[in-house]
Amino acid sequence: MSFHIRLTTFQQIRTFVALASRQPFEVRVGNDRQSINAKHLMGMICLDYSRPLNVHADCSPDEGAAFYNDAIALQA
């Protein structure tokens, strides 16, 4: 499953990393030039947040839907 997310604050980034870390599947985040493990805060801090990020989760459709809903809720 893949989707886009826009994170604009450090708190959103920390919460997203915590959410990704709870998942039993791999979650990668990046842009056109980078792709990093979304479970590592230091890597997430280094990303360019001026544009939405690409999120790729290697999971089942049911797991992906739940993860997507939780991740998108961070943007509110």
Which terms summarize this structure?
3 helices, globular, Histidine-containing Protein, Chain: A, 76 residues, 39% helix, alpha+beta, 4-stranded antiparallel sheet, 21% strand
Short description:
Strands 1-4-2-3 form a four-stranded antiparallel sheet, covered by helices on one side.
Distance from N terminus to C terminus (CA atoms, Å) equals 21 Å
What is the CATH top level name?
A: Alpha Beta
Q: Count helical runs.
A: 3
Largest sheet: 4 strands, antiparallel
| Radius of gyration over C-alpha positions, nearest whole angstrom | 11 Å
CATH H-level name... which superfamily?
HPr-like
- The sequence of SSEs as H and E is EHEEHEH
Structural class by helix and strand composition = alpha+beta
Shape: globular
Show unreliable segments.
none
Our count of domains comes out at 1
Mean pLDDT: 94
CATH architecture: 2-Layer Sandwich
Overall strand count: 4
Walk me through the structure.
The protein is an alpha+beta fold and 76 residues long. It has a single domain (2-73), classed as 2-Layer Sandwich (Histidine-containing Protein, Chain: A). Helices cover 39% and strands 21% of the residues. It has helices at 10-21, 41-45, 61-73, and strands spanning 2-5, 27-30, 35-37, 53-57. It has a 4-stranded antiparallel sheet with strand order 1-4-2-3, with helices on one face.
SSE diagram, text form:
Layout lengths: L1 E4 L4 H12 L5 E4 L4 E3 L3 H5 L7 E5 L3 H13 L3
Antiparallel strand pairs: 1-4, 2-3, 2-4
